[in-house]
Amino acid sequence: MIEPAGQRFDDGVLKRYELRRGNRLILRTGEGFRGYESFELRNPFRLVLDLQNISMGNVATAPLANRNPRQKIIVIDPGHGGVETGATGPTGLRETEAALDLARRVHRRLQRDRTLPVVLTRDEDRLIGLDERTAIANYNRADLFLSIHLNASPRSTATGAETYFLSNDATDDDARTLAALENGAAGVSRDPIDEVTDRNLDLVLWDLAQNQYLAESSLLAERVQWHLNALPGTRNRGGRQAPFRVLMGATMPAVLVEAGFVSNIDEEERFRSMEYRSRVAEAIEAAVREFLRELDRLLVPDPRVSRP
């Protein structure tokens, strides 16, 4: 139930909402409203309405129309957003801002190839739930989901990039702690694997669904990590596994990239550089393209194998 029953907003998309007779929701839109898309989530059941701004022309939450069978749809997810700012560096660089900028740069680079439609889960500073992010990828029937973040550690000397794919068993304690922090920052109060084991059969099924993409997700993480390692001054922290909630609902190869430690003052300074961000985006783009080429080779049937 929405509380209070009526509320005004100083917003160009949504001006006001009203709840009437307990079960009728009325939305009053503003001059910036372009349209909306809707999709359902379960456990608990939710009807998600995505109100679109007229300026959000490159954010897609509906299936891409007239898709060429040879096209590969990529969904790029900038971590955090809105009131959920993520990590903050020693001199004030916020993860949510840097992640969004990196995602936009990757988006622009990939969009140069018209056979690669690219969807951003957000193209502005707004909050999106973890389940909604992968729901957008699933709704668009994406071939690849990549969530971009910056890391943080209580150890100020921690540096380097690491790339994760989903697993119930974390690579080590650091990986499990990071997943718990990311999940907790987005409102997941417990370790998600414990939570789904106890209460949420649907997420267990999502996890099983992601298992069929385990090899592809591992390959994608390996390629991203290799290209990030080639950047000057980047310490190789390796491809890793952890129970990130944002990866659980994906029905395609999916990884979460921690591009560097914003908590390290030297690394934070690098991420303040637009040139360095462009190099990180270039590395991620190269990894995605390399992964898709390898994936195509894996999917091409061997002519030497006879068919029934």
* Dominant shape: globular
The major sheet is characterized as:
6 strands, mixed
Compute the CA-based radius of gyration.
20 Å
| Integer tally of domains | 2
Distance between the first and last residues' Cα: 56 Å
Strand content: 15-25%
Structural class: alpha/beta
CATH superfamily of the largest domain: Zn-dependent exopeptidases
Mean pLDDT score, rounded? 77
Please give the count of helices: 9
Total beta-strand segments: 11
Strand order of the largest sheet: 7-6-8-11-9-10
Low-confidence stretches: 1-6, 56-62, 188-202, 304-308
Question: Can you give keywords for this protein?
Answer:
308 residues, Aminopeptidase, six-stranded mixed β-sheet, three-stranded antiparallel β-sheet, 9 helices, 23% strand, disordered N terminus, disordered C terminus
Protein described:
By secondary structure, this protein is of the alpha/beta class. The chain folds into two domains: 1-58, no CATH class; 63-299, Zn-dependent exopeptidases (Aminopeptidase, 3-Layer(aba) Sandwich), CATH 3.40.630.40. Helices cover 36% and strands 23% of the residues. It has helices at 95-110, 130-139, 173-185, 192-199, 201-211, 214-229, 245-248, 265-272, 274-299; strands spanning 6-8, 14-20, 24-29, 33-41, 46-53, 74-78, 118-120, 144-151, 161-166, 236-242, 254-261. The strands form three sheets. Strands 7-6-8-11-9-10 form a six-stranded mixed beta sheet, with helices on both faces. Strands 1-2-3 form a three-stranded antiparallel beta sheet, with no helix packed on it. It has a two-stranded antiparallel sheet with strand order 4-5. Helix 1 (95-110) packs across helix 9, helix 4 packs across helix 5 (201-211) and helix 6 runs antiparallel to helix 9 (274-299). The longest helix has 26 residues, at 274-299. The termini are far apart.
